[in-house]
Design a protein that fits this description.
single chain; minor pseudopilin epsh fold; three-stranded antiparallel sheet; globular; disordered C terminus; binds fe (ii) ion
Length: 208
Amino acid sequence: MALLTQNPYKQRSFDLYGLKGISDQTLEVHFGLYAGYVKNTNLLNEQLVEMSQSGKAGTPSYAELTRRLGFEYNGMVLHEWYFGNMTTDGGADISGSSPLGRALGESFGDPETWKKDFTAIGGMRGVGWAVTYLDPASGRLSNHWITLHEDGNIAGFKPIIVMDVWEHAFLLDYKPADRPKYIESFLANLDLTAAEARLTGSAERPIG
Ligand SMILES: [Fe+2]
């Protein structure tokens, strides 16, 4: 039986040293964690192919590995979206006349209200992600909390702005209770061009 083997995912690099309020040390640790997700995703895929080749597809251990793949894969992709929407030149005000500003205005009233809601969601208890998603069916933007990497992801929605609020994203720079300061820093580094490219579909790689 021929099995579809896949090319391994390649770890991507992000030129982010020198961000405002997020230290290079934090980024270094964070890039290392991201590398672990890429490695584990590739490893799980290899193991699944090997198990299939040895007739173990359909066993409980095979099924369990596919469940773990969801965690590792989301961990890889969410980090690429997060690093991909920050830049050392970031943090400009969102103009109400820009495509992103208009979309936020139509969905939230104005960009400031989006920011308040996004900040509040990112500040909730627990480790996970705050994401502004686009519903491709309605064109509406909405903010969501994702626990860990999986629980709360909306199937089929497109990520526009993605913020990591696991503690490893900020504990070297801020006290646990100072998560709001980290969120301010994230917004101060937000790459509006990247977010807009995701929104308008002009991103070379929409997930990047
Ligand atoms: Fe992270």
